[in-house]
Amino acid sequence: MRRDAGHSDHVDTIAIDSAAALSKVRKRLLPFLFALYVIAYLDRINVGFAALQMNRAIGLSQAAFGFGSGIFFLGYFIFEIPSNLILRRVGARRWIARIMISWGVAATATMLVRGAPSFYALRFILGVAEAGFFPGIIYYLTFWFPERERARAIALFMTATALAGVISGPVSGLILGLDRIGGLAGWQWMFMLEGLPAIAMGFAVLVYLPDHPGEAAWLTASEATSLVAHIGNEARPADLTHTNFSRVLLSARVWMLTLFYFLFAFGLYGINFWLPQILKGFGDMSIVAIGFASAIPFAAAAIAMVLVARSSDKMGERRIHLAVCAFAAAVGFFAAAYARNPIAELACIALASAGTSSCVGPFWAIPSSLLGEEAAAGGIALINSVGNLGGFAGPYAAGFIIEKTHGFGPALMMMAIALGLAALVALAIRDPKPRAGFVLPV
C-alpha cells in the first residue's frame, strides 16, 4: 500500500511539473517560432504583390510568373530531406539559424532580378535556402509537446502563415508606394525591406533557441525531466512505428498523407500567389487598397485555423476534420470561379482560404504520431517536400490557364477540383490509434 501511494505521489509530481513546463514552453517558444514563420512565409508569398509592378518592369508573362513563383518548391523539394536530417544531427538552434540567414540573403537579392532567367534562379535558390525550416520546426515541437497538445501548438505556430498574409498585403502595398525613391522601384524596396529581418532573426536564433528541454535555462531540472519523461512515455502504435527512414518510404499511409498535402498545397499556393492579381481584376483599385483587401481572406484563415485545431484536439480526431475543411475550401473555390460581384467573390475566396489553411493543425498532428523518433525528421520532411510540389504545380498551372483563357475563373475551378480530391483522400486515411500514457490535468 505504501509503495502504491508513493508511486501515485510520484506520478502526480511528474504531471504537475510537466504542466508547469508546458506552460513555460507555450510562452517562451511558440511566440518566437511564430515570429520566425511570419518572416519566412512573408518572404515566400510577397512575390504575388511584387508582380503588380515587377512583371511589366522585367517582362514576365503570366505563365512565366507562375513558373517562377512555383519553382521555389523545386529547390525546396530537392534539399528538404537532407536539410532536415542535418538538423537532427547538428541541432535545431544552429541549423535553423543557418536557414534563416541564407534565405534572408536570397530574399533580399531578389530585388536584383532583371528578367525571367534571373527570377527563376533566385526563386529556386530561395527554396534551397528555406528547405528544412518548416518540417524542422514540426520535428522540433515533438521534443516539447505531447501528442494531445501538438495539433494546437502546430496550429498556433502555423497561424503565422495567415498573419503573414494579413501583414503582407497592407505592408507590401505601402512599400510598393516607395516606387522610384532612391533610384529603386517599389518592388525592389519590398524585397529588400522584407528580406533583411530574416537575417537579423537568424542571429537571434543562435542566442535564444534551446535544442531540447535539458538546455532551457528557464525550466527547472525537475520540469525538464518530467516533460521529457511525459513525452517519452507516450506509446506509439506498433504497426505504425518506423524505426528507419527506408520503412517510411514503403509506408502506404505516409504516401497518402503526401498526396493529401500535394493537393492542399496546389490550392493554397495557387491562390496565395495570384490573389493580388485577382483583386486587381476587380476594377480600379490602388495598390494599397489591393493590399488591405488581400488581408481579409488571411484573417478568416487565421481564425479558422485556431478553431479547427482546438476542435480536433478536443475530440481527438483528425481525418474528418481534414475532410470537412478541404471540402469547404473546394466549395469556396468553386463559388469564386462563378461569382460576378467583387464582394461575393472575395467572400468566396475567404471561405476557400479558411478551409484550406485550417487543414494544417489536424494534418501535421498525424505524421508526428505515426513515426518513431528516428524516422520523424525524414518522414515529416518527405511529406512536406514531396507534398509541397503542389506549390509548384498550382501556381504554374494557374499561370498557364490564366494566360490561355484571359480570366481567373478556370484557374479557380482547377483549385476547387484539387481540394475536392483532397477531401476524398482525407476520408481514406485512418486515424492513428490513441496512445497510452497519463493525461495532463487541464
Q: Helical element count?
A: 20
Order of helices and strands: HHHHHHHHHHHHHHHHHHHH
How many angstroms does the end-to-end distance come to?
Answer: 28 Å
The CATH topology is given as: Growth Hormone, Chain: A
Q: In what range is the share of β-strand residues?
A: under 5%
- What structural class is derived from the secondary structure elements? mainly alpha
Do you know the CATH architecture? Up-down Bundle
- Count of distinct strands: 0
Q: Percent helix among the residues?
A: over 70%
Q: Concise description?
A:
With 442 residues, this protein is an all-alpha fold. The protein is built from 20 helices and no strands. It has helices spanning 2-28, 30-45, 47-58, 62-70, 72-90, 92-109, 116-130, 133-141, 147-176, 186-208, 221-232, 245-249, 252-280, 287-315, 319-338, 342-357, 360-370, 373-387, 390-405, 409-428.
